[in-house]
Structures are given as structure tokens and as C-alpha cells.
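User: Please fill in residues for this 424-position structure.
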């Protein structure tokens, strides 16, 4: 009997504009090709973006406009560009090394259960031995998030609710409940590399004892023109060399430390718990879910620096971000970025008033510089539309008023650790 064709077949997934792969090469000569979520993968045909890692350490991106599915040619291209891995140093480490610190990973989410489930799977695969996973359900309207956490993650992930809308409020709820010495934050739309937390911890162990560490963010997929545009222009990838930012040794940046976006992003950041709590956590009048739309991470970075601490950037702490897939979503995101930037600059001088004079001296040309430094220059063949640039500038101008509006709305809001009995 011949089967009839399905009258309503499932639509085929559109082909990726650019295939995203990871090529792990070891000093022993072995090579492994995988997808960002860690699954073994073949060598694709067509355009490909490949993260090259030498013995687990990211060394760079290989961006090929066309490829013929020959893995040997891909490995050869990676070797020609980045060389061969250096054999690891097996000399013994310093004596008396202290116990690894506990890390609390906090994920704030709101009504995106499918994305959250994928994110949590990667967080449960972390190689670091002492992790506490906390999900904060922000202003939920359904029980879908609770079902994800209490279903497949029962006993492995702590579930908290923050009834008031706002990313900073949700993060503060997680901070209050966390037991780790280090507090790591990421979003529900990411895939965490298995060594992400270990990479953050390595960043804290570097010379200079940073109080905050950020990491590398790469695209999890490049299926649509909108995702490709964000990859080339969003400025999320901060490079493959460790960095240390210090107010006593500022970089060559006329707006430092106000260009806090150069330090990293809230999707991949961690703080020493005592430092973050001493700052009062995140400003509840900033972040997604408030009129300010963002700026919570930028303000935390800024306050860390101006209070005399250091921020480290660790490329080995890698997460893969799912960029917005269509142009309408990108426009919404750009509006949030612009408003959040304006809100952050307003909050910076209100929260740290001694910095007002420094900002005033940098105003001529400074805002334009801030916008260009928080977004990568990109590629001419993948242009950043003028309408989005205009939208971002208008949103930036609206940021100060949006922040003041949010402060009025959040009047009386305290951090949960200031209110015993409300932390859990």
C-alpha cells in the first residue's frame, strides 16, 4: 500500500546563512568539529564561522564566505591563520592552592520556557565542580517557567519568584538567595560552553584580583539576515586576549570609564558577592522590564570601576547567544540599547555624583563616541541601516527621562538582603 503525501507537511527549516561551528585542536594533533551546543558535527558546505580552540582555549574566529565540506581543508586553514597549539605546561602549580570558590549562577527569565530549558541543559553540563544554579521567574503570568525548573531540573536548580517586573529586581532576588562566593549572571537565550564557569573562575584568579569578570559572547546561530547583521555590528565579541580594566591605569579611551559597554555584557558577567552586595546590587530602576529598558549591567560595571575595583575580561569564559532573528525584533532591541545607554549615563552621575564633573568635561563629541564604541564597525557588505542608527540616537536622548520615570516607579524598593524574611 502506497502512503499518501502529508497534505500539511512540516515546513523545512531554512538553511543557515552562515554555519556556526567549533574546531577544537589539541597539541597531540587531534581535531574535533562540533556545533555551539557541543554536538559532533560534519564540515558544512557554504559560508561558515568557526571558533578555533587550542587545547580548550579560544584563539580566534575563522570566517569563510564559502567552503566545500572538506574538514582537512578547514583544519589547514585554521593552522595557517592561528598556528598550532602549544603543548601544555605540566609543571606543578604553586603549593597550598586554596579550595575552589563556590559559584552561584543566576538566570532571570520571563515566559520563555523553551529557551530556558535549552539554557539550563548547558548549565547542567558545566565542568566546574561547585555550582549553585538559581532561576528567578520575573513577574510570571503562567506556571510554565516553574514547570521547566521543577520538571526536568528538579533538585538541580533552585526556583525563585520576583513578582515585580524588572531584570535588576530579579537579579537582586537571586543575589539575596545565593550562597556562592562568586555570582555569575547570564540570560535565558544563551547556550553556555561547558567550561564557561571554569573560565570565569580563572579570570578571578588572575593577577590584579578583579572584582568583576566578563567573558566572550559568540552567536549560537546565523540563520537570518538580522542575526548576521547583529553579529557584525552589535559589538558583543570583545576579542581573544585577557584584559584588566583599572581606573589607576586607564585605557586610551576619552570616555573611560563611562564607556562601560567595552567591559562586557550582562549576558556573561560575574562579580565577587561581597563587592556586589556592598554596592547595593543592581539599580532596580534600570534593566529590561522598566521604562529604562536596559543599562543595569553598564551601571554595575561603571560603579565597580569608580569604587576602586578592577574588571577582568576572560575569553575562555564563553557563552553562545541567540541573536534576534527578524528585523522587527532587532529594532526593539536597538531601542532598548539606546534608552538603556541614556538611562545608564543618568544613573551613573546620580549614583556616583562625584563623577559628574568628569562626564561634563567629556560631553563634546562624547555621546557619539559612546555609541560607536558600544557597537562594532561591522562589514560594508552587511550594513547597519541608517534607520536603526537614528532610532538608537532618539532612544538615547529619551534615556534620562526614562530613568527618572523608572526611579519614581521603583520608589521605596529595597534590596532583598536589606529586608530579612524576603530573600527566599
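Assistant: Residues filled in for all 424 positions:
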Amino acid at each position: 500500500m502506497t502512503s499518501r503525501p502529508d497534505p500539511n507537511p512540516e515546513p523545512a527549516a531554512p538553511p543557515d546563512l552562515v554555519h556556526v561551528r567549533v574546531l577544537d585542536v589539541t597539541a597531540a594533533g587531534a581535531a574535533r568539529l562540533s556545533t555551539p551546543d557541543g554536538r559532533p558535527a560534519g564540515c558544512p558546505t557554504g559560508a561558515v564561522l568557526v571558533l578555533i580552540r587550542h587545547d580548550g582555549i579560544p584563539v580566534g574566529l575563522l570566517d569563510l564566505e564559502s567552503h566545500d565540506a572538506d574538514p582537512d581543508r578547514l583544519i589547514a586553514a585554521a593552522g595557517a591563520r592561528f598556528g598550532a597549539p602549544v603543548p601544555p605546561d605540566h609543571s606543578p602549580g604553586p603549593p597550598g592552592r586554596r579550595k575552589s570558590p563556590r559559584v552561584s549562577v543566576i538566570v532571570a527569565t520571563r515566559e520563555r520556557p523553551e529557551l530556558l530549558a535549552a539554557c539550563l541543559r548547558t548549565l547542567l553540563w558545566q565542568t566546574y565542580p561547585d555550582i549553585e544554579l538559581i532561576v528567578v521567574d520575573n513577574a510570571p503570568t503562567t506556571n510554565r517557567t516553574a514547570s521547566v525548573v521543577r520538571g526536568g531540573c528538579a533538585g538541580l536548580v533552585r526556583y525563585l519568584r520576583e513578582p515585580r517586573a524588572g531584570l535588576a529586581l530579579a537579579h537582586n532576588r537571586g543575589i539575596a538567595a545565593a550562597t556562592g562566593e562568586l555570582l555569575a549572571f547570564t540570560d535565558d537565550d544563551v547556550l553556555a560552553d561547558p567550561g564557561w564557569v571554569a573560565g570565569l573562575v580563572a579570570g578571578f584568579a588572575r593577577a590584579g584580583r578583579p572584582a568583576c569578570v566578563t567573558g566572550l559572547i559568540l552567536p549560537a546561530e546565523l540563520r537570518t539576515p538580522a542575526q548576521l547583521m547583529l553579529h557584525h555590528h552589535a559589538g558583543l565579541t570583545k576579542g581573544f586576549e585577557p584584559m584588566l580594566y583599572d581606573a589607576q591605569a586607564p585605557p586610551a579611551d576619552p570616555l573611560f570609564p563611562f564607556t562601560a559597554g567595552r567591559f562586557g555584557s550582562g549576558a556573561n558577567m560575574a562579580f565577587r558577592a561581597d563587592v556586589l552586595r556592598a554596592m547595593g546590587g543592581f539599580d532596580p530602576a534600570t534593566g529590561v522590564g522598566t521604562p529604562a529598558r536596559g543599562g543595569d549591567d553598564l551601571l554595575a560595571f561603571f560603579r565597580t570601576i569608580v569604587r576602586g575595583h578592577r574588571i577582568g575580561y576572560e575569553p575562555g569564559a564563553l557563552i553562545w547567544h541567540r541573536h534576534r532573528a527578524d528585523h522587527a525584533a532587532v529594532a526593539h532591541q536597538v531601542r532598548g540599547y539606546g534608552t538603556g545607554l541614556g538611562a545608564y549615563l543618568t544613573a551613573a552621575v546620580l549614583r556616583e555624583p562625584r563623577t559628574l564633573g568628569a562626564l561634563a568635561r567629556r560631553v563634546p563629541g562624547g555621546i557619539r563616541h559612546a555609541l560607536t564604541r558600544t557597537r562594532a564597525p561591522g562589514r560594508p557588505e552587511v550594513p547597519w541601516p541608517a534607520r536603526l542608527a537614528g532610532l538608537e540616537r532618539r532612544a538615547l536622548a529619551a534615556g534620562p527621562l526614562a530613568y527618572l520615570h523608572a526611579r519614581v516607579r521603583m520608589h521605596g524598593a529595597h534590596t532583598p538582603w536589606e529586608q530579612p524574611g524576603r530573600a527566599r
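For context: The chain is about 35% helix and 20% strand.
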